[in-house]
Amino acid sequence: MKTKALATSAIMLAIIIVMGAIPSIPLGFIPVPIVLQNMGIMLAGIILGKKYGFFTVVGFLCLAALGLPILSGGHGGFVVFVGPTAGYLYAYPIAAFLIGWASEWLIKNNKFSFFPLLIVILLFGVLLIDILGAIGLNIVANMPLDKALLYQVAFIPGDIIKSVLGVAIAMILNKRHFIL
């Protein structure tokens, strides 16, 4: 592993952990709160690329599984991987990989700009995570799938804001040659 990639991965891991310290917003009608941490997952894919983004997020989830209270709300431990948020958590490394893959493709083909990257984030960082989260709610919480999918609508405004902010940050970092 290159020194820059290792250092950038460690910084990204720290950023994702810090985002978990920001209070989540409970919705009441669904056992999953609105969190900022998923924006860190999006950024990991963009900044680190598919390989390092994936492994950084897997490392983050391993730390959470070991019991470190690094998930939003100070949660951690194996129990979160069999609870209502399980589908979202399992989606995180997949999303980081796909965002990283698409970002690398955009860079390689000289198409790395705001709107193409926003589409990538909305597809893999919002839609994919929300769909897998709904499937997780269906399996773990026995919530009917149509109801679980409908509840994802509550996350869309915040997810769009996080996506736009994440892409704006990525554009700034790309100009400074910080993206791997």
Brief overview, please?
This protein is an all-alpha fold.
Number of strands: 0
Q: What is the CA–CA distance across the termini?
A: 12 Å
Q: Which CATH class applies here?
A: Mainly Alpha
Q: Count of helices?
A: 6
Structural class: mainly alpha
Largest sheet: none
The chain-level mean pLDDT equals 94
Give the name of the CATH architecture: Orthogonal Bundle
Unreliable segments (pLDDT under 50, ≥5 consecutive)?
none
Beta-strand share of residues: under 5%
Keywords:
globular; 6 helices; biotin transmembrane transporter activity; 180 residues; Biotin transporter; mainly alpha; Arp2/3 complex 21 kDa subunit ARPC3; single chain
Describe what this molecule looks like in 3D:
With 180 residues, the protein is mostly helical. It has one domain (3-175): Arp2/3 complex 21 kDa subunit ARPC3 (Orthogonal Bundle), CATH 1.10.1760.20. Helix content is 69%, strand content 0%. It has helices at 3-21, 37-65, 86-108, 114-140, 145-151, 156-175. Helix 2 packs across helix 6 (156-175). The longest helix is centred in the first third of the chain and has 29 residues, at 37-65. It is globular, with a radius of gyration of 16 Å. Belongs to the BioY family.
What's the topology here?
Blueprint: H1 3-21, H2 37-65, H3 86-108, H4 114-140, H5 145-151, H6 156-175
Helix pairs in contact: 1-2, 2-3, 2-6, 3-4, 4-5, 4-6
